[in-house]
User: Fold these one by one.
Assistant:
Number 1:
Amino acid sequence: MRKIDVLMAGVGGQGVILASDSLAEVAMRAGFDVKKSDAIGMAQRGGSVVSHIRIGAKVFAPLIKKGEADFLVGFERLEAARCASYINPNGLAIISDQELPPLSVAGDAASYPDQEKVARVVSLYTKRLAFVPGLRIAQALGNARVAGVVLLGFLSAFLPVEVALWQEDIARRVDAKFREINLKAFAQGREEAMVFRSTETEAKAVVREEVPKRLRNITRNGGRR
Amino acid sequence: MRRLLSGNEAIALGAYHAGVSVATAYPGTPSTEILENLARLPGPYVEWSANEKVAMEVGLGASYGGVRALVSMKHVGLNVAADPFFAASVTGVRGGLVVVSCDDPGMHSSQGEQDNRHFARFAKIPMLEPSDSQEAYDLMSIAFQLSEEFDTPVMVRSTTRISHCKGVVEIGEAASWQPKRPRFIRDLDKFVMVPSNARKRRPLMEERVATLARWADNFPKNEVIIQNTRLGVIASGAAYQYAREVFKKASFLKLVATYPLPKQLIADFSRQVETLVVVEELDPFMEEQIRAMGLEVKGKEFVPPIGELTIDTLEDSAHRVGLLKNVRRALSRKETQVELPVRPPVLCAGCPHIATSFVLRRLGFYRHLNPLEANEGGKLPSGLRQGGIIATSDIGCYTLAVYPPLLALDTCACMGASIGQALGLEKAGVANKIVAVIGDSTFVHSGITGLVDMVYNQSAGTVVILDNDTTGMTGHQGHPGTGISPRGEKLTKVDLEYLCRGLGVRDVNVVNAFDIAQIEHTLRRCVESEETSVIIARGPCPLKERPTSRPFSIDADRCDGCATCLRLGCPALLREGDKATIDKGRCVGDACGICLQVCPREAIVRAEKEIA
Ligand code: SF4
Ligand code: SF4
């Protein structure tokens, strides 16, 4: 069996660890060998969080090699851009529309990258990029916190794991009163992925010439909030 | 049963299934979760010790009492515990004593990088190194057995990538907790290390190492994997996993027992391969010993001695020395083409350390003239000498105040050092006033003795204890100053005020950590006084207490963008255009309120006002 390397990146408090725990768990239940490593900065919250999940028949190294990740799941734009070099040339970058400027930006020392810049960075490594309106879907459902689960739903559409396993795992992980909203978020993320898949082949050809503008169109998610 | 466990979870469960009765630790990344996970399981006695030295002593005592004991800590913790660790090697044990040291190559969360395999060799204690969660689990029962059979403490060395990496672990269905019966048998020759007895134990220690080396030669977890015999790789721990991916076709000698080294096994392996290399993180620990056996071996000429190994670095350097051909060169070069803002670690919104740090900066060495001072005509705050105060810092969340925009601290070396350093600076005759900053947990860990020294030596310095009633940095563990056990039970609480007074400090002050005026007033008075003083700045950690008060907001009409509030470094305060704004999702409002106190234009408002 081929290996699947998934890199998740975001900011502390966004639920990156919960999402990667869930992915690792369902992959194990689906019969694969799994290794999952989290790289968390010094601060409890507010720092960069990166999670490496490696799935395969037998996994050795706990970390993904640069240029090897099959999927990059970015919970936040800047952190996604930071990890772009991990993606392999056929890899898919799934990036949420969430913005969390770090203090270096608040203090005016640097500027927060817009969607176009992120697309430019990612396109150095792969042409397959999906901006997912995770936060907007979550807000529409009534809880911004489930934005991460939307991304998980999106990712799930590309992995050889049954939906039922995901649903079970998510239900087990969250409080009973948030179960329904989490499952809905997951389902909507999956749906977004179906739409993306159907437009991807057609979009690819155009993307090469004019990356940023076209990408904004195919994801139906123009620019900022 | 298959379970997904981190290395630390696996170590805890492995020790549990090996019947551990007493487990002690001081929290420290990457080791913390070992004790935390044991505390979730019924049966064993678990404690957060005041520091690693005490943890080791408690573990040793339990072992003398005939039960199995586990002591865990981060790499630098073993420096603190070195004294009883070496002593344990001399006396040996009764019940098994396993010491887990979690190293941090790459310094993800540490003040330094050190290869604790040297400690095992230095103390003549056998060492085992797991290379994944399964092995971490399996090794615990082996380690306890080994300890009892060879009358020695056993060291298990993990690293960040083992401790914090989750992997699949197979656990026997029948596994359960079966502790040994406690019993102390008096044995003065063994337990009382007066010189005449210690002299008798010394040769036994050498014999022990020799027997253990023979044991290691036949230890089945030291695995030989023969594939292509052109290249033979010797590796242990996480380095083994990286090496497996980089040298896909090579033969391997995976070592789990890495001190003493299984020399026969290594010699046999070397005969089977053409080129022998050692892949190890940090120091050439195995390499040097293997070379001393007279074998030709490559190691540090291509494996970097600094930092964590990655597949990329290993591949690059293997390519450089010709061990690998046709590697797809890392694409990472492209990274340099794009500049992205950094995301430095920050204190949390509502953090009780922000106000004190802000005051320290205002009075401090790194004094930047700010609008508040400009009001005073750019003059120095009253009573302070040119250059301001020096703030020596310790290790904890508050160390983050060294980063911009706070820039409040001047030193940071190791646990407890802030107080001794402050005294040293003072006695050196430095003209500045000196304030030592230390957290409540760190103060109990190793600040108490420093304060005793200050009192005794008539220091005029000031110690600020930032008391957030928890061990914040490592994730809210209890300590003697909180009176909370690792299982969450209420124990006796050590009262810091009384403690300081009892040590002989007459000037002990307790201030509200969110009251800037009170902190500043007290601090100014204390640094001017000629006697030792302590200020306890008390306020709960917002991540532990989770305050639910309403967030503040900023009246954009009043805000003139002076950025004073942004200098607090609160992550809920952001810049929007040329004004400041508050992220309502993060601000804890009245539970904090420090930005309200610094805004010169009174632009920051409570939610009630906003609604009205
Ligand atoms: S009150 Fe001010 S300083 Fe405190 S958390 Fe809210 S924004 Fe930050
Ligand atoms: S809120 Fe107050 S302190 Fe912050 S920038 Fe505006 S005027 Fe200055």
Note: The two ends of chain B are 59 Å apart (CA to CA).
Number 2:
Amino acid sequence: MSFYEVVSGYKDFDFNGFLSSVNSERVRVILSNDKISDMDFLALLSPAAQGHLEHMAEKARRLSLNHFGKAVLLYAPIYISNYCINRCAYCGFNHDNSISRKRLTMEEIEQEAIELSKTGIRHVLLLTGESKKHSPADYIIEASRVLRRHFDSVTIEVSPLTLEEYVHAAKSGIDGVTVYQEAYDEEVYDEVHLSGPKKDYRFRLDTPERACRANMRSVNVGALLGLSDWRREAFMTGMHANYLQDKYPSTEISVSFPRIRPHAGVFEKVSGVSDIQLVQTILAMRLFMPHVSQNISTRETATFRDNLIPLGINKFSAGSCTEVGGYSGAQATEAQFEISDGRSVGDVCEAILARGYQPLFKNWMSI
Amino acid sequence: MGKLKIGGIELGSRLFIGTGKYPSKDTLPKVIESSGTQMVTIALRRVDATRNENNILSYIPKDTILLPNTSGARNADEAVRIARLARAMGCGDWVKIEVISDNKYLLPDNEETLKATDILANEGFKVLPYMNPDLMSAKKLVDAGAVGVMPLGAPIGTNRGLRMKELIGIIIEEIKLPVIVDAGIGAPSHAAEAMEMGADAVLVNTAIATSDDPVKMAKAFSLAVKAGRYACTARLGAKSEVASASSPLTGFLHEEGF
Ligand code: SF4
């Protein structure tokens, strides 16, 4: 069985009917229980649950404190290539966009690593566009070896790899894989992925599972909120995380909540997700899966991010640069998306401390 | 209150402290002081030796015994490698084996824990295994060379207290080595309860670290552990299932004629 069957099981489900049937009383009952079922989770994403945000926040805060304590793990992305053969309607690296393309050499990657490590960052997320020609698995693995000399943990967000490639990557010391489904809604998925291998919905959907099977330490999933109805997308993200955690208990599953940001391309059909709605998603997810790490990137504004800390966000990117070669500055290109929180690592640390939390630089090391 | 003998050393305090989950590293030395603890556990995966201000080791007073733990290990092999790394980094010979291959409930894997204990005890480590409270596993861990066992009171971070009380009670009765109740202790009263039952020590992290005033909470735990220990050594009065009725049901047996 694959997660595709779970998604398919919800194809004919009347989401709108269910969501509008949820009333305040039902939400109150759910919040008084310890265990949250799949349907309870969906109910917590309903319009009615929005009236109980404070209650949800109280519970989410308690659960997050118990499981993660007063600590927020910091990491930073490192973009090493922006060549991409896909045409994703929402992305600045889209093959059709006329941006300058660059792929870093190992020496340049080392320079980036040296600059980034000066900020104190110990965990990095290595990113590339999707191009088997410019950034094949071997290139990524070689790059990760360079990065490991400077960081304690290296995870990757690159084109979906095969099981064998993930096994090789895990053995080479890559700790984790981030892969966003972007849109769980298959029709929307087809609509926004205009061409390229990424059009293969099924292959992408099964990617996190291949990473789990390859014994990756951590696997991060998420939907790009704004492409489609956020409630359904948030629900399917939770179902995906839950499916993976149940089937691969030794893999640490985490979730991210990227919202669409302005970029070099154009995608007009964004169905906005408000701050309140994003907060509701984060809270519902925490109540549904208390042990799952929740991650928020610099796509969000500084103030908003800081306010999310006590609500259950325990992973933060900081001092991020989304340009290839951006840390060492020599070969900077266009960014994949615009950053909202442009604070330095030091400033982010101060903000975390001001909230009564501890910035954590290291939470794992290659052993 | 007698001293705790464990792994060939004597400890005056029966409260062990965890170092994760604190709002800042600066809080740690104060917590250690107010708790009176002599043994603190640190997750080696969080030790950052690259920068002094980030290195948790530099916040722990020198006379405290370090108990590096293998948190993050998913199997015996990873636990062994983490323990060896800890020793190589100068963290000493003590190690708390923590093997968790279940990220949903964070329950320890006794089988893998046993394998790691066996290997590390043979390498001269003073091994304290964190475990599900199962008597047979505890016995095997002792045979493998552990210097004590650390059964969980309730799953990590739940603050639910001694949910496994009956099973821990059996371990306390049957295992001759120190029994340290670990995980689940969410309030000083839980710690006192464990000590009253006869546990040799308790390890507390979440309840202190995430309280509004960790320094004060550490003190509260220190007092509770002492109270529980005193109660245990003073022998609690026997519990009776029936009230002593003033006219007992069998009283007639003593009446004349029977
Ligand atoms: S989202 Fe990824 S695959 Fe799509 S265009 Fe951007 S870099 Fe390429």
Note: The mean pLDDT of chain B is 89.
